[in-house]
Each structure stands twice: as structure tokens, then as C-alpha cells.
Design goal:
Layout: E1 2-4, H1 6-12, H2 15-30, E2 40-45, E3 49-57, E4 62-69, E5 81-88, E6 95-100, H3 102-120, E7 127-131, H4 135-144, E8 152-156, H5 160-170, E9 173-174, H6 177-181, E10 186-189, E11 208-211, H7 224-227, E12 230-233, H8 236-242, H9 244-249, E13 253-256, H10 257-262, E14 273-276, H11 281-303
Parallel strand pairs: 1-6, 7-8, 7-10, 8-9, 10-11, 11-14, 12-13, 12-14
Antiparallel strand pairs: 2-3, 3-4, 4-5, 5-6
Helix pairs in contact: 2-3, 2-11, 3-4, 3-11
């Protein structure tokens, strides 16, 4: 059985392979071809420590992820998310691999946003606003740049020094949150906000928002006006259990991402759109299978 740590995964996983893999996984999910319960999130300490249990079975992959979400780690130098993934053969049940899941969680989240952005953002989108300056801001900048040629990058963080450091490292401009959002073509919210930080009146017509933060049923990043736009989600069932942005706003869900990718739902052009992502087990398992297949090919090639 193969074991892969984070650095080994980093050497194998590429955006140009991962983004289409996430499209395929979410199409399969929305077509009902994935067996997956909504994540079981155990509260260890409210607001600070959680443990998530995430199994999934698809035709090509089967497995489970255990993920710790510790927002209390923010600012300590320790990551807020840690994870391990177990991968099995779906036909025989035999274990294939154990791998670190922190980087997979980081990259698959951004890859899903990139896939949705490819379908929903304006073709000529040039201005990207990142709200948050942590690992998801970095990952989204890399992934989204694969689907749109952004010429201006804006960043905001609750800690101004963090935003300035991100800006210096990524040729971006740090600015107040309202200034970052106004006029932006694509906005990413990747925070642990408890109350809305984005006012829907700031969004330009035709803007696209990827909301990937605040993953609790009583936490929010977007206000009711923002949520009143065309709403796409990764899973209807999951967001109605886990997303405060959806639950507390009462927003109407237009489609799942997999339906958009499959072409069974189409968003009219020039509409303002919001993608609310809570993260699905099938995304982790499909990513782990992609990593495993690449690693297996490398081992086979070296044995020749």
C-alpha cells in the first residue's frame, strides 16, 4: 500500500489535470452516480475545534477523508486544516493508499472554484479580488489564473500586515474590503467570518463570487443582497445543512456545479453569480485517485 506525504503530493499534482478532474467528479455527483453522505462534523470546541468524517464511493474511486478544522489555530503558525485520506479499490475493496490530505483539500477547493469560474465568470474578466490572505487565497490565485487572464489582483485581510505581505509576494494591491470588491470581475471569499463581510451592493453587474469560507451553519461571509443573485452550489443537500450563507439568507439554489458542467442547467450571460462551496468528499477522493494514478505510473516507468 502506497503512502504519500504532502511534499510528494505537491510534486505530482498539477492544476491543469486537477481542474478537469473536479469537473468530472461533480458531474458524476450531480447525476447521482456517487454514494456520499453529507459530512459528519463533530464539534470538539465550538468556534475553535472540529473533526470531519467524509466517505465517498464512485465508479473509479472509493475512500474517506478525516479532516480537522481548527480555526483557533489562525495566527499561531499552525494550519487551520489537517487531513488524511484513505483510498480503496471500489471493485475489490482492497486498500490502495494513505496520503496526507491537507494539500489535497487546499488544491481541490481552489480547482472546483476555477472550474465554476470558467463557466460563470465573464470571458473578459480582468480584475480578481481575494478576501482573505491565507492558503486558500494563494491557491485560488494560482487556480483561477488558469481559467482567466487577470491583469489586476486585489487583496483584503482582517490583518492589514497579512494583506500587505500577500500583495508584495503576488504583485497584488492591498486595499479596504469595499474598494477591493467594487468593480472586481471575480471575487473570492476565503475567511472565517461569523457575520457578513460582503455587501451585495458592492458587486458589479455580471460579477462572479466564489464563497469558500465560513463553513458552519451559523457563519456567514455574504449578506442577503449578495445571496439574492444566481446561486450555484456544490451540493444542495450539503449547503442546506452546513452553509450559513445559504441557510440564514433563505437564498434559492439555481443549480449544482455538476449540473452546470454537464449542461443540464445554463446560467444566462451577464448575470451576477455566487458559487457557495462547502467541499465534498468526492472531490477529495477523486483528487486522491488522480494522485495515486500519477504516482503508480511513475513507479511503473522507473521499474522498466
Amino acid at each position: 500500500m502506497l503512502y504519500l506525504d504532502e511534499e510528494e503530493i505537491r510534486a505530482l499534482l498539477r492544476w491543469d489535470e486537477l481542474i478537469p478532474a473536479m469537473e468530472k467528479a461533480l458531474i458524476e455527483f450531480s447525476l447521482g452516480r456517487v454514494v456520499q453522505p453529507v459530512r459528519n462534523m463533530l464539534t470538539v470546541e465550538e468556534g475553535r475545534r472540529y473533526l470531519g468524517i467524509m466517505p465517498a464511493v464512485a465508479h473509479e474511486a472509493m475512500g474517506a477523508k478525516l479532516v480537522s478544522f481548527y480555526p483557533g489555530n489562525e495566527g499561531t503558525g499552525r494550519a487551520t486544516h489537517h487531513a488524511m485520506i484513505l483510498l480503496f479499490r471500489p471493485d475489490t475493496g482492497e486498500p490502495l493508499a494513505v496520503m496526507d490530505g491537507r494539500l489535497i483539500t487546499e488544491m481541490r477547493t481552489a480547482a472546483v472554484s476555477a472550474a465554476v469560474t470558467k463557466y460563470l465568470a465573464a470571458p473578459d474578466a480582468q480584475i480578481l479580488a481575494l478576501l482573505g490572505s491565507g492558503v486558500q487565497a494563494h491557491a485560488h490565485l494560482q487556480a483561477l489564473s488558469r481559467v482567466r487572464p487577470f491583469h489586476k489582483i486585489r487583496v483584503w485581510s482582517r490583518t492589514a500586515d497579512h494583506a500587505e505581505r500577500f500583495a508584495d509576494q503576488n504583485n497584488a494591491e492591498a486595499m479596504p474590503i469595499a474598494d477591493a470588491v467594487r468593480g472586481a470581475d471575480v471575487i473570492v471569499t476565503a475567511t472565517s467570518a461569523l457575520q457578513p463581510i460582503v455587501d451585495g451592493d458592492w458587486l458589479k453587474p455580471g460579477a462572479h463570487v466564489n464563497a469558500v469560507g465560513s463553513p458552519r451553519p451559523n457563519w456567514r461571509e455574504l449578506d442577503d443582497r449578495a445571496m439574492a443573485n444566481i446561486l450555484v452550489v456544490d451540493s444542495r443537500e450539503a449547503v442546506l445543512k452546513e452553509s450559513g450563507d445559504v441557510i440564514l439568507s433563505g437564498a434559492k439554489i439555481f443549480a449544482e456545479a455538476g449540473e452546470i458542467f454537464a449542461g443540464t442547467k445554463t446560467v444566462p450571460s451577464a448575470e451576477t453569480t455566487v458559487f457557495k462551496s462547502v467541499g465534498l468528499a468526492i472531490e477529495d477522493i477523486a483528487t486522491a485517485k488522480l494522485v495515486y494514478d500519477i504516482a503508480a505510473k511513475a513507479v511503473t516507468a522507473s521499474d522498466r
